[in-house]
Specification:
By secondary structure, the protein is of the alpha+beta class. The protein contains two helices and three strands; from the N terminus they run ββαβα. The protein is flat and about 35 Å long.
């Protein structure tokens, strides 16, 4: 069902499944990045929101530490 989400979306840089069965998607950005500013990033944000809406983890991350926090604490 989530693959039929009505918004145009782009796959994140990192996409997979955790040991507990939840799907995750992490989009890597530069350390100074703050929020989506162009259509590509808005499409990425839509995909990440779709993951969250279906019980997964979907986040923009600016460092390996930030990525690890989202994965560990979802």
């Amino acid at each position: 069902e989530w693959l039929r989400y009505p918004m145009p979306m782009r796959m994140p840089d990192f996409f997979g499944m955790l040991n507990d069965g939840r799907i995750f998607g992490l989009e890597a950005k530069k350390p100074h990045w703050i929020k989506p500013t162009d259509q590509r990033e808005r499409d990425q944000a839509d995909f990440l929101q779709c993951l969250r809406a279906h019980g997964g983890i979907g986040e923009f991350v600016r460092s390996a530490d930030e990525a690890q926090r989202f994965i560990e604490h979802g």
